[in-house]
Design a protein that fits this description.
This protein has about 200 residues and is mainly alpha-helical. It is built from eleven helices and no strands. It is elongated.
Length: about 200
């Protein structure tokens, strides 16, 4: 206890401290966008010091990259398994719609300056955030669909595999708002399924 009868704040270390900084960075990015994302602002929000941040990330750009990877992975769920390709695709898109719609304005508006400053693209951000896991959910869904006879492996080119997610991301980024459920159904029923079903 201190002189005021309060327990001293517990000192955070290692992984706990790093997670607190990244969460603070993500919150700062959502609240202030790219222009408001500074080492000072993140340090204040995380209740730590600049020197603590600089021991882990050499500059604002490194911290921002790590923050984006952290934030884009929040709320990721297991691959859906509804028993049908249509059900799995709709479940995946509905989950993404609920999780990603909150950050669509950030990615489509505030991040323009980030892309200009860094020379990176949204695809670069996704690769850094998801690494080898990028596309794994779709791979699992399609493997099960092939085993059930719902998808023709000879038709599953890289473009066809990605078309549903690409259309979803396009609309989300263009409107900066969640898609209506009937739009998700249209992506699956009118575009994706006719491309992958056996002839």
């Amino acid at each position: 206890m201190d002189l005021h009868g309060e327990a001293p704040a517990r000192r955070r270390r290692g992984e706990e401290l790093e997670q607190a900084i990244l969460q603070a960075g993500w919150d700062q990015l959502l609240d202030g966008g790219y222009p408001g994302f500074t080492i000072d602002a993140v340090a204040e929000r995380a209740q730590t010091s600049r020197s603590v941040i600089y021991r882990r990330w050499s500059d604002r750009q490194e911290l921002l990259d790590a923050t984006l990877a952290y934030g884009l992975n929040l709320g990721r769920v297991k691959t859906p398994d509804t028993g049908s390709l249509r059900g799995d695709m709709l479940a995946m898109l509905r989950t993404s719609n609920a999780a990603r719609s909150a950050i669509a304005p950030l990615m489509s508006v505030f991040m323009g300056a980030y892309y200009a400053d860094s020379g990176r693209t949204f695809a670069d951000v996704r690769r850094r955030a998801f690494g080898e896991r990028s596309g794994r959910t779709m791979d699992e869904i399609l493997e099960r669909a092939i085993a059930r006879g719902e998808a023709d492996p000879s038709r599953l080119t890289p473009r066809v595999r990605a078309v549903a997610a690409d259309l979803f991301r396009h609309d989300l980024l263009m409107t900066a708002a969640p898609l209506a459920d009937d739009e998700l159904v249209t992506i699956v029923d009118e575009i994706f399924l006719p491309l992958v079903r056996p002839a």
